Amino acid sequence: MSRIIDLSYPVDTHWRPNWLNERKVQSSFDTGSNWYTSIVTINCHAFTHVDAPLHKVKGGKTLDQIPLDTFMGSAYIIDVSYKGPGEGIQAQDMEEHAQHLQAGGIAIIKTLWDEKCSHQTKDFWIRAPYIEKSACEWLLERKVKSVGFDFPPAYSFRYPYLDPSERGTDHYSPHETFLPKGIGTIEYLCNLGQLQKNVVQLFALYPNIVGVEGFPARVIAIED
Ligand SMILES: [Zn+2]
User: Fewer Cβ atoms within 10 Å of its own Cβ: the N or the C terminal residue of the chain?
Assistant: First the structure.
C-alpha cells in the first residue's frame, strides 16, 4: 500500500516579515451573514513554496507558463544530513550521494534541518547549512527539471538577521543557476526524515494562478 508523506509546513503565523500572512474575515455568522468568508494576504515565497523563472529573471516565465510537470514526478532524495550548521554543500557531496539521480528528475537536497532547528526561530536562518554553486552546477549538468531544499538554500539568507559586521560577501543563491535555465526550485520542504526510500513520486501543487513568480505549495511524496 502507498504511503503519502506531507513535505510542507503549515501556513500559520510567523515572525518573519516576508512569511507574514494576514487574515481578514470578510463575512461571518457573528455579523449576520449566512456565510463565513475570509481573505488571506500572503507573500508568494512564504513557507513551503515553488519558484518560477520570473523570480530571478527579468521577463522570465511565470508559474502558469511553465510545464505543469515541472514540480511533479520522480524525485531523488540526496541525503547530506551530515552537514552541520553553517556548512556548505558542495559538488563533492553530490558526487558521493547523488549518483542515483536520473536526468529529467527532481533533486531533493535533504539536510533534516527542520528536525534540528525550528523554522519559528531566527537560528533556522542564521545557523543553517547552505548549498554552494559547485553543487548546483553539478545538478545542472545532470539535467534535473527542478530542485528542492529543506533549508534556506542561500548563505546570504542569514544576512538580514545578523549584525552588519557579521555578514559575509557571499551573495550567491541557487536561483541564479537554476531559474534562468527554466529549472524550478522548491524551498522550505520539511519531513524528509519520514521518507523511507531515496526515490519517491513527488507532487508540488499550487493554484492555477496567472502571472506570478512563485506560490506556496502543498508538496507531498508518495512511496509505494
Ligand atoms: Zn521563493
Answer: N
